[in-house]
């Protein structure tokens, strides 16, 4: 079916070329980083993970979009999602490829990557993260491809496809849970050391993932003249709304525990995000994240205000706006704040700030372009097959 | 050397494993030239051994940061630790103030003396080390004598251990450290870019029967010994003095003690 | 044949890529075992293993050594003739074989292998 991605109009090819250029920029910058080491990033002894790991964290959530369609469709036989399931699965593939690439570019010695497999270490969460991420990716590739192939041939999908699809459901939950465990099991990083971390990951994944997918589907609807179905959109929007309510609620729980208990370690990182902290040795007040976090809080609440009433949620332009600010808010929360604030204050209660360097941004751009290319090609195939079948 | 039954079984097991491992390749060498490497190794006779190595630092005997300088120099020279300016630096042994050293110990109205003193910071060689727990390749591991060791050959540079260490004891080589080493010690390797490193309690010196470099340079102000032996000097000092450990509430059980 | 031109062009590109190692090296001289300079007799009194064995096995030996020293805390190696040496690339191997250029690089360059031992381990200063 891959040949279907080779037929497209002028705009399609312009888009592909643009992505290839971005990938080239990313590849060039990665070559530089590979040669000179991570000194080209703005990470430091104190903030030892940065933008790359944060993007991994966010994109694990995006990969969830698949399961929010797979679960109702395969498990509850919710037919309205029938036309969309494969898009969710294909987007999950793109997201996980990005996740894995973000892990690789973050490594100091990427050529030794296979040591994780050669010396399997079950007590390390990173080992399990590798297993569930790869497992979820292969399940999505197989299920998505096989069901689309069946549709192309005009036959119902095989029974084993359904079984694998159902197996992929616990895998989807585990990629968030295990990725949350990367953080939640670490002593002394109070911002991360919270039992609700995995639940927060799931909630933010189940709103941000489907939100991105819905926005992309609206684009596909426009450029490919492909009907996604009014009812499916409404259902997805409802799922997104509920998940976002949980997401904001869970964050509120964190705020309560930290500020009612008034244990300094529990408050520090949150204070840093919303007000900044003073470095005890220099006396400087540092808070580069503050405007971002207030913007995120505002956008999160506004998106809820627009999504909860059905009148605004069912109005397409408003829905699109609400989804965009929802994605922005969740991205600032997980793609910027969560990882970095865990390192602030540092282990000596000093404050070292972090903002990504241009190298980090260019490499990330390249990886996002690779993900976009994968999703574009796969979705192009899916749209073509589905249109031919209809 | 006393050989316990347990030790004997261990040696016997390792030897059997070694022979089993050697048997396969040995068949491939019909000339019989192949000898399993593992049959030819031992710890040497001069090495210092302990059940659990530990350190007591008498901070009363140090008067300010300058007093620690010779220790830091001895350590960093011995191990080719680079001096890198900025936030991407590498440290094995360094100093901090009271609050930086004991952040969970917010003493109000702290004694003047403690307030102005400097405290040496290094890897705590925890009995329950989180860095070992999180490492995905066993590049960081705990030796039988309690020393938390790094295998630089295996580290992939994921920096999970840096996130995991509650003591900020680990440094990542953001760049090739060699240009930042003033004078190389030819008897010890440097590191390469992309791996994490930290204090090793001078395993290479213990193997030769010598005390760690900082202990030697401290001229008695730091005592290094076996925490697992109730009759050792270090245990007597611990019994006679009140000591602090860094962040004991985390359950990592550091092996570095501070007399305040 | 449909699209014959494209197929043939594609095949040529494919063969070009697949055969790259062959045509890239075409015309260069064949492999010759480099001639090694033995370490000075005054320094090197004893071989830890026979030369042939070392030629074939030195990488495995070093690999076992590093695990044994770093991970198991062993330090001493018993040589073929029963002598004892410290398992150390810098302190033992390169003590006799005191020239990285002669001892390591010659063969490694000829065989086009590039081990990264020396990114960390410090080679002895070459006398020139």
Total helical segments of chain B: 9
Q: Strand sequence of the main sheet of chain B, in spatial order?
A: 9-2-11-10
Q: Mean pLDDT of chain C, nearest integer? A: 86
User: Ranges of chain B with pLDDT <50 over ≥5 residues?
Assistant: 22-33
**Helix amount of chain B:** 25-40%
Kindly state the number of beta strands of chain C. Answer: 2
What does this structure look like?
The complex is a heterotrimer of chains A (390), B (260) and C (128). Chain A contains 14 helices and two strands; from the N terminus they run ααααααααααββαααα. Chain A is an all-alpha fold. Chain A has a two-stranded antiparallel ribbon. Chain B has 260 residues and is of the alpha+beta class. Chain B has helices at 5-28, 69-78, 98-101, 112-116, 130-134, 160-164, 203-206, 213-218, 233-240, and strands spanning 41-42, 53-58, 94-96, 119-121, 140-142, 148-150, 171-172, 196-197, 222-226, 243-244, 256-259. The longest helix of chain B is centred in the N-terminal third of the chain and has 24 residues, at 5-28. Chain B is globular, with a radius of gyration of 21 Å. Chain C is built from five helices and two strands; from the N terminus they run αααββαα. Chain C has a two-stranded antiparallel ribbon. In chain C, β1 (76-78) and β2 form a beta hairpin. β1 of chain B pairs antiparallel with β1 of chain C, so a sheet runs across the interface.
Question: What key phrases describe this protein's structure?
Answer:
heterotrimer, B: 260 residues, alpha+beta, 4-stranded mixed beta sheet, two-stranded antiparallel ribbon, 9 helices, globular, C: 128 residues, mainly alpha, 5 helices
How would you concisely characterize the structure shown here?
Chain A is mostly helical and 390 residues long. Chain A has 14 helices and two strands; from the N terminus they run ααααααααααββαααα. By secondary structure, chain C is mainly α.
């Amino acid at each position: 079916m891959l040949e279907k991605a080779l037929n497209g109009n002028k705009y399609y090819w312009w888009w592909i070329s643009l992505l290839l250029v971005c990938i080239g920029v990313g590849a060039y910058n990665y070559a530089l980083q590979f040669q000179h080491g991570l000194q080209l990033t703005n990470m430091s002894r104190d903030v030892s993970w940065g933008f790359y790991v944060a993007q991994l964290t966010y994109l694990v959530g995006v990969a969830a979009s698949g399961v929010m369609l797979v679960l109702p469709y395969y498990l509850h036989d919710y037919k309205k999602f029938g036309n969309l399931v494969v898009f969710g699965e294909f987007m999950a593939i793109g997201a996980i490829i990005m996740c894995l690439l973000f892990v690789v570019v973050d490594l100091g010695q990427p050529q030794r990557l296979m040591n994780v497999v050669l010396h399997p270490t079950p007590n390390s969460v990173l080992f399990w993260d590798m297993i569930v991420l790869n497992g979820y990716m292969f399940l999505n590739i197989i299920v998505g491809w096989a069901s689309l192939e069946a549709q192309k041939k005009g036959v119902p999908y095989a029974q084993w496809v359904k079984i694998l699809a159902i197996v992929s459901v616990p895998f989807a939950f585990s990629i968030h849970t295990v990725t949350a465990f990367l953080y939640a099991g670490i002593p002394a990083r109070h911002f991360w050391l919270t039992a609700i971390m995995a639940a927060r990951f799931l909630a933010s994944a189940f709103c941000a993932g489907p939100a991105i997918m819905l926005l992309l589907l609206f684009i596909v609807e426009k450029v490919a003249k492909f009907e996604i179905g009014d009812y499916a959109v409404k259902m997805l929007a409802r799922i997104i709304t509920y998940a976002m309510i949980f997401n904001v609620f869970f964050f509120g729980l964190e705020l309560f525990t930290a500020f009612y208990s008034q244990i300094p370690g529990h408050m520090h990182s949150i204070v840093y995000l919303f007000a900044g902290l003073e470095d005890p040795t220099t006396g400087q007040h540092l808070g580069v994240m503050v405007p971002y976090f207030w913007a995120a809080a505002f956008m999160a609440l506004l998106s809820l205000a627009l999504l909860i009433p059905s009148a605004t949620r069912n109005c397409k332009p408003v829905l699109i706006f609400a989804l965009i600010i929802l994605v922005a808010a969740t991205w600032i929360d997980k793609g910027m704040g969560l990882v970095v604030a865990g390192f602030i204050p540092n282990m000596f209660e000093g404050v070292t700030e972090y903002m990504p360097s241009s190298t980090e941004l260019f490499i990330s751009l390249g990886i996002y372009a690779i993900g976009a290319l994968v999703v574009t090609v796969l979705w192009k195939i899916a749209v073509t097959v589905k249109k031919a079948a209809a | 050397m006393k050989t316990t039954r347990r030790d004997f079984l261990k040696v016997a097991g390792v030897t059997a494993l070694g022979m089993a491992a050697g048997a396969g390749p040995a068949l491939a060498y019909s000339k019989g030239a192949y000898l399993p490497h593992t049959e030819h190794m031992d710890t040497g006779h001069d090495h210092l051994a302990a059940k659990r190595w530990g350190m007591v630092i008498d901070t009363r005997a140090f008067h300010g940061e300058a007093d620690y300088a010779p220790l830091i120099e001895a350590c960093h020279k011995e191990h080719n630790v680079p001096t890198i300016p900025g936030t991407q630096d590498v440290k094995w042994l360094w100093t901090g103030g009271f609050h930086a050293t004991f952040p969970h110990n917010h003493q109000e109205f702290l004694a003047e003396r403690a307030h102005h003193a400097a405290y040496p910071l290094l890897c705590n060689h925890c009995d329950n080390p989180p860095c070992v727990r999180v490492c995905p390749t066993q590049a960081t591991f705990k030796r039988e004598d309690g020393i938390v060791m790094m295998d630089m050959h295996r580290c992939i540079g994921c920096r999970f251990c840096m996130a995991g260490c509650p003591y900020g004891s680990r440094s990542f080589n953001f760049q090739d450290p060699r240009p930042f080493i003033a004078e190389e010690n030819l008897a010890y390797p440097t590191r390469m870019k992309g791996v994490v490193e930290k204090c090793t309690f001078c395993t290479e010196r213990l193997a030769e029967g010598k005390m760690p470099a900082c202990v030697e340079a401290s001229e008695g102000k730091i005592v290094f010994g076996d925490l697992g032996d109730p009759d050792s000097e270090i245990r007597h000092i611990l019994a006679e003095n009140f000591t602090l450990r860094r962040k004991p509430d985390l359950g990592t059980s550091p092996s570095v003690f501070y007399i305040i | 044949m449909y699209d014959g031109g494209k197929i043939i062009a594609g095949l040529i590109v494919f063969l070009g890529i697949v055969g790259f190692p062959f045509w890239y090296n075409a015309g260069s001289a064949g492999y010759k075992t480099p001639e090694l300079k033995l370490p000075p007799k005054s320094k090197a009194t004893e071989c830890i293993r026979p030369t042939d064995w070392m030629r074939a096995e030195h990488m495995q030996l070093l690999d076992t050594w590093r695990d044994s020293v770093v991970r198991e805390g062993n330090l001493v190696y018993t040589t073929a003739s029963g002598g004892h040496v410290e398992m150390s690339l810098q302190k033992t191997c390169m003590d006799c074989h005191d020239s990285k250029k002669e001892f390591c690089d010659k063969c490694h360059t000829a065989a086009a292998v590039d081990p990264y031992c020396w990114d960390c381990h410090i080679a002895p200063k070459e006398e020139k």
